[in-house]
Design brief:
Deoxyribonuclease I, Chain A; alpha+beta; nuclease; single chain; globular; 9 helices; about 20% strand
Length: about 350
């Protein structure tokens, strides 16, 4: 029957696309399938229901397809399980009602062509974070948000018209700031310190290129920048945060390698996906905007904020700082370190 062939074809396609990223190829047409793991999982469940309803299981091939489909579902569930309430939290909750030392951050990829400047300013005031990080910001965006400086007297402004401009505003004094071009001279990132309780907290704001044909045909440069920052944060040893639009999902091989290299914690694990992209399409949502924190922190709240008419939702995180308390760090193997070095060297060649 034609319907059976269509069903077999759909199962074959979803299974192939699900395992394609195992190739670890940096080509965009491989890496892009890292993103829709949850969507593939939902489609696979639907296909399993259809398969059970419509297939008579009269042939060996019918059973083979069933086993392959179930194996794919289990494989996909392995990726998304950590980002559910079923999993243990990687970053513990703050248990005190009134923690002494708090730090709240807000990240917004504003979408450079978005002209809803007032809405973004309104959201910044509403969230009232200590540090605000705005991405895809050109000169027009910088001019439009100048009014927030009365609440955020410290800032780093790197407007660019190539969708990789960065604006950083802080209520804390900014120390030891540097604007870095780790891989590409047109793609900036930020490193800076703030002082809380006479101790430094280091922050890394990044926005690497995504592996899509109109931006970058390979993921190597994105992966290298993420891993460079991971190494830098691990070397710092003190409280540190890596944040921004990483153009990568939390469950990708690169992000998991980053967690081992940096020894940072992912606040999403055990709590949810906190999807920030795409804000316009309900069927295509995944987490691209991230906060990764060293184990000196505890989570008070993490929240996807209301839309600012960008293709990304804003996201905020409220943290407490436990200066000496460290746990749940992952360890990088020698193979991990060698792989990270290889990716970085390849991107720099």
């Amino acid at each position: 029957m034609l319907s059976h062939y269509i069903l077999f074809s759909c199962i074959s396609l979803i299974c192939i696309l699900s395992v394609l990223p195992l190739l670890k190829s940096p080509k965009w047409y491989v890496r892009v399938w890292d993103y829709p793991r949850f969507q593939f999982f939902c489609v696979s469940i639907f296909l399993l229901i259809c398969y059970i309803v419509f297939i008579d299981f009269e042939h060996t091939a019918d059973w083979i397809f069933l086993v392959v489909l179930i194996a794919t579902i289990v494989y996909l569930f392995w990726f998304i399980y950590p980002y559910s309430f079923l999993s243990k939290k990687m970053l513990p909750n703050e248990t005190s009602q009134n923690p002494k030392h708090r730090l709240k951050l807000l990240t917004i990829n504003v979408y450079q062509d978005n002209e809803e400047y007032a809405l973004t300013v309104e959201r910044i005031k509403e969230v009232n974070a200590d540090i605000v990080y705005l991405l895809e910001t050109d000169q027009e965006w910088m001019d439009a948000v100048q009014e927030i400086k009365k609440d955020y007297p410290y800032f780093i402004e790197v407007p660019q018209d190539n969708t990789y401009g960065l604006l950083l505003y802080s209520k804390y004094e900014i120390l030891n700031e540097s604007i870095n071009f780790w891989i590409d001279e047109e793609i900036p990132s930020l490193t800076f310190d703030i002082k809380i309780k006479d101790k430094l907290v280091r922050l890394y704001g990044i926005h690497p290129t995504p592996p899509v044909p109109q931006e970058n045909p390979e993921s190597t440069e994105r992966d290298a920048e993420i891993l460079i920052v991971g190494k830098k944060s691990e070397e710092f040893k003190g409280p540190s945060i890596v944040f921004g639009d990483l153009n990568d999902v939390a469950w990708s091989h690169t992000t998991r390698l980053f967690l081992r290299i940096s020894k940072m914690l992912d606040p999403r694990i055990g709590r949810g996906m906190f999807n920030t992209f795409h804000a316009k399409y309900w069927f295509a949502k995944w987490p691209l905007d991230h906060f990764f924190v060293s184990s000196h922190f505890r989570l008070i709240e993490m929240k996807v904020e209301k839309s600012v008419q960008s293709d990304h939702y804003p996201i905020s995180i409220d943290l407490s700082i436990q200066w000496e308390l460290k746990e749940n760090e992952l360890e990088a193997s020698q193979d991990d370190k060698e792989e990270a070095t290889e990716i970085i060297e390849e991107a720099r060649d």
